[in-house]
Write a structure and sequence with these properties.
- 1% of the residues lie in helices and 42% in strands.
- The longest helix has 4 residues.
- It has a single domain, classed as Neuraminidase (6 Propeller), CATH 2.120.10.80.
- It has one helix and 31 strands.
- It is mostly beta strands.
Length: 373
């Protein structure tokens, strides 16, 4: 049974022009949501699922990178629902927000689960105003933004965009994207939101794009920046020391993954190359932790007649040192997954949910945390 939350705080959407008036109007405390009782579920039918030996064989851990400190992984409270294809997660005020995705036999869910590490529990936030998968998200210290996404299985993107007020537990529509896309990367930089890459229309082609557009959070409008070299989607993307890093991803499908690592230099509106990620993959998480960039999970392979071929679901944890322009490997995720929700809070990296096999047929509620401490 689907654990849907009906929240009285989800009032009529407030406009950007009145958003500031809602500050200080605190919503009721968010309700706790129990963890899923089963770690995996099939998308078809939404039924609990136990991985078959063939599916277990898709798990892949080997990294060509030199060894770094191993670190360790620990289990955390499982997601309330096995889910995947959220297109990552975002962190604000010490909590991780996981929005949209596949789950419970549908690909256009409006889920909004919020993880509180201080109590190792999940909370139910106001649902996204419409369901979608591969929604790009980013946050500042009081708001979460959600951009685009697909309303069908990894295709048929839209231009819808929303902002979530953390205090009011409420979403509002904002200026739509200039062009429809899903599986893009969103990062906050110097008060503006950069939306990079992704895949767009027509749905039958679902081609990767290199579009780079910036949303002005004060003016509620978009402008263009220099496009990403090598159009791709399902990338990892973070900001660090005045640069935006875009790492890995795919050219149209996971059959054509890449290790490419570009950095955007805002002062010059230009892109530069950096050392490639050791393992080519897409749908991986990417976070900043202890002044390094950490990539975990992902997928690769091909589908022939709907049957996986050379399928890999990655457990690798690899980190990048921006000062030395080098990579290392660390202890792998105990449970390889792709399309995860990942975020850094304190001295831990949290990695929740994701796809347990190549493609979107099996979702996971598994939640694991990594630390070097």
């Amino acid at each position: 049974m689907r654990r849907r939350l009906v929240l009285t705080s989800l009032a009529l959407p407030f406009s950007v022009s009145t958003r500031g008036q809602s500050q200080g109007q605190l919503a009721a405390p968010l309700p706790s949501v129990p963890s899923a009782s089963e770690p995996y579920a099939r998308l078809q039918g939404g039924a609990p699922h136990h991985l078959t030996p063939d599916q277990e064989a898709q798990r892949f851990f080997d990294s060509p990178a030199p060894a770094g400190p191993a670190g360790r992984w620990e289990r955390r409270a499982a997601l309330p629902i096995p889910r995947s294809e959220m297109a990552w997660a975002t962190v604000t005020r010490g909590r991780m927000h996981v929005v949209g995705g596949y789950g419970e036999a549908a690909v256009n869910r409006d889920y909004h689960h919020i993880y509180d590490p201080s109590q190792d529990r999940w909370l139910g936030g106001a649902p996204l105003p419409r369901g979608a998968n591969h929604v790009a998200v980013a946050a500042d210290d009081s708001r979460v933004w959600a951009f685009g996404g697909f309303v069908e299985q990894n295709r048929r993107s839209d231009t819808l965009a929303y902002v979530y007020d953390v205090d009011a537990n409420r979403w509002a529509a904002i200026a739509p994207l200039p062009r429809p896309r899903g599986a893009a990367a969103a990062v906050m930089f110097d008060g503006s939101l950069h939306l990079i890459g992704g895949a767009s229309e027509p749905a039958a082609e679902r081609a990767s794009v290199g579009w780079h557009e910036v949303y002005d959070t004060k003016a509620d409008r978009w402008s263009a920046r220099k496009a990403l070299p090598g159009a791709r989607d399902h990338v990892g993307c973070v900001t660090h020391n005045g640069l935006i890093h875009v790492i890995g991803g795919r050219f149209n499908t996971f059959e054509y993954n890449t290790t490419l690592h570009h950095v955007y230099v805002p002062a010059r509106d230009n892109w530069e190359l950096r050392a490639p990620m050791p393992t080519e993959r897409s749908g991986h998480g990417l976070v900043v932790y202890r002044n390094r960039l950490w990539a975990m999970g992902g997928e690769g392979g091909s589908m022939i007649g709907g049957v996986p071929s050379q399928a890999r679901v990655y457990g690798q944890m690899e980190s990048y040192d921006p000062a030395a322009d080098t990579w290392q490997r660390h202890a792998s995720m105990p449970t390889p997954r792709h399309a995860v929700g990942a975020g850094t809070i304190g001295d831990w990296i949290y990695v929740a949910g994701g796809g347990a096999v190549l493609g979107g047929s099996v979702q996971a509620a598994v939640h694991e945390a990594f630390t070097l401490a």
